[in-house]
Structures are given as structure tokens and as C-alpha cells.
What does this fold into?
Amino acid sequence: MSKLIINGPTRLNGEVCIQGAKNSVLPILAATILCNGKSTIHNCPKLSDVNNSLNILRYLGCKCSFKNNIAVIDSETLHCCVVPDSLMLKMRSSIIFLGAILGRCGSAVITSPGGCELGPRPIDLHISALKRMGAAVHEGYGRIEFNAPNGLKGTTINLSFASVGATENIILAAVTAKGTTVIHNAAKEPEICDMVRFLNSCGAKIYGGGTDTITINGVKGISGCSHTIIPDRIVAATYMAATAVTGGEILLKNVEPEHLTTISSVFCEAGCELKCFEGNIYFKAPERLKNVSMIRTAVYPGFPTDAGPLVLTMLALARGTSVMVENIFQNRFRYVDELRRFGANIRIEGKIAIVEGVSSFSAAPCKCTDLRGGAALVVAAVAAKGTTVISDIHHIKRGYENIDTTLAMLGANINEV
Ligand code: UD1
It folds into this structure.
């Protein structure tokens, strides 16, 4: 099992080019199932979640290649509609394959995703929407089978919560359904807009991506296209947080500042300087960070739950008290126990974290609990005095391409062993 060894503290300085967004590429890889011919996906990050998605596509019969951050998928040869348990379990977000498989094959079999590191992961919204579109659903022995032998039918779906995954699954199922599907209270995340852009370039008729009402006019079929994945806003937030806690100064290249406005405003309030220009952000940390007013995680364009662990780690080193309310996932704060090993003073009361900033961290052995919680430990370690050993880094590899060499280029003393 590999580990990250980080000797701190070191002030981060330099330039970093932000990778393609994980949460954009995963649904787009699923979407290629609907395409005739080849889809070429550029700026595809090298992540274990991407490899797992490609393995699902291969299992289903698609031809896939992945080289130099370009993934090419040919779904013409797809012959299977079952995602086996072993592949489902590797990645809870494999649920986004459901809508595309059902749309393409008229049936889909997945295993129940159960819970994950962040808490329960229900898929009731996905299931009820697909039922409304005409799918018959049978559950048993840990498997869920969806059947729509005569194809899915467009309908109106009112989501009780603006779920990212449910919005994506409904769009994917609706692309080739008969008639028009309207999603009310749709999620508005930039990654959904990216998937909509991909699908529309392939010939889909989707309107209103990025608003809370999305309309999909079903088409007979779509053809693969060439698409470039948007930059990962959470990875950008990670390098900002790591720079903030080390008093550094960096240039973030290949970013979309508009996707980062809520996150950027928290960094500004903490005393950081941000200047946005042409897909770049110049970021400079103050000598000492300040506390910020209450942060509440919310659906986009609110403060993203995925940036919570990174910003909370920064606030643990700020002057004064800050409060974060986690409204999306029940078990999001599991990484806080690990942060306490560095000397962080954080109290958790239900979904609220109360952070009393301390002036410094000292290194400690620690374990990743989940993807963003793991990245938060890396942020803590670059600021901490001494040698930190972080284990269970497979969580980090789900979402970060070369975090070790990227931070090393910015001046961190970091090695994977
Ligand atoms: C996506 C992101 C994840 C991010 C999350 C919230 C991907 C691959 N993952 O996950 O990184 O943290 O959005 O921004 O894009 N829920 C239900 N029933 C459902 C579906 C969801 O109760 O049928 C609940 C979930 O338990 C959770 C909340 O809704 O509490 C948010 O989930 P959702 O927006 O669906 O997140 P994901 O698509 O799983």
C-alpha cells in the first residue's frame, strides 16, 4: 500500500495547470454509451475513477483507449447491460451508467450502491424518475433490474432535491426516449452543463442546462464527437487551500473562475488575494489567515460540499473562530479526527463544525478517510512542522492526477513510497 511522506512546512510558489474535472468526465464517459461511432474525450484526468469507468465500458463491450489524457470510446460493439457488483463497488458513482445503459439497451442491471464513506447513498430519486419514464424496476438479492422493452417515454419529473447524479441519469435516459422530458428542480452544477454540452454536440436536444428546468426532446440516436473536459474546480480549491496554509503565491492555469466564485469569496474573506484573468487565477496568501463568517454547504451555486474539507483545514490555521454547516452528506466530517492529530481544534456537533484556529500544525501519521478528506490531510501536512505519513492514499487517487509531483513542483517536500 503506498503512502505519502510530506516534510513541512514549505511555502508553495509557482504555477499549476488544473486537470480536467472528475465529476464531469465520469458522466461523460457514461454518456458515450448512447453514441454511435467514436467519442474522443480530451483533457481526461488520469484517475482511478476514470480507469474504473473505462473498465465498466469495456465490460459492457465498448472499445476504449486512454493515452496522453485522451480517452477514445467506441460503443458500437456494446453487447451487455449488466454492471457487475465488483465494478459497482469500486466506485459508487457508477450509478450514472444506469440511465445511459437503459437508454441504449432498453434494460439495465446494477447492484444496489448501499452506503459509502460519506454516509448513506440512496438512489430513490433515480429509481422513481426512471419508473415515471416507463421502466419496470425489480429489486432482489442486492440487484436492481430496470426494463423498458418498448423504450422510455418522456415525462415531467419534479425532483424533491436537486441531486447531481439523478439529474444526470434522467438526462441520459431522456436523450433517446420518445417525446419530451422536463426536469424541474434540476441540479445546476457546471459538470452537468459539461455533460449537456457533450451530448448536444453529439446530436442530443437538451435545453436549459445550468438552470433549474431542463428540457430534453428525445431523438432517434446520437453520434460520438470530440469534447474537452472543463477544469476541476475542487482540485483548484485544493491547491488554493494548500497555498493559503503555507503563506504562498501561485498561478492557477486552466481554471474557470466563474465556477469558483463561492469558493473564491471564502478565500478572499480569509485574507487571500485573488486576481482572475483569461482562464487563470493569481492567488496570494496573507501572512496569517483570518476566520470567516458561517459557511453552509449547498447545491451549486452554493458552497460545494466537496470543497468543505479543504477550506475547513485552512480555517483551522486561521486567526479566530469559524463555523461550517454540512448540509449534503451525513458523514462528511470523518476526516476531522485525523486533522486533530495535527493539533487542529475542531468541534463537531451534528452537521456543524466549530473551528478555533491555531497558529501552527505539527506533523502526524494519519489515514485518508475519503477522497476530499484525504486531500485535506495533504493540505494540513504541507503546513505542518515535521514529517507526516499519510496512508490509504487510494482515496486521493480517485480524484487527483499526480498530486505529489504537482505539489513538489510548487516547492513541497513530498514523496510517494
Ligand atoms: C455528486 C458528486 C459528488 C458531490 C455531490 C454533491 C459526481 C460523480 N459526484 O455526487 O462529488 O459531493 O454530487 O455535490 O458528480 N440523494 C438522495 N436520493 C437520491 C440521490 C441523492 O437522498 O436518489 C441525496 C444523497 O444521499 C446526498 C444528496 O442527495 O445526501 C446529494 O447527492 P447527489 O447530488 O445525488 O450527489 P452525487 O450525484 O452522488
In short: The mean pLDDT is 96. Residues 48-60 form the longest helix (13 residues). The CA atoms of residues 316 and 357 lie 4 Å apart.
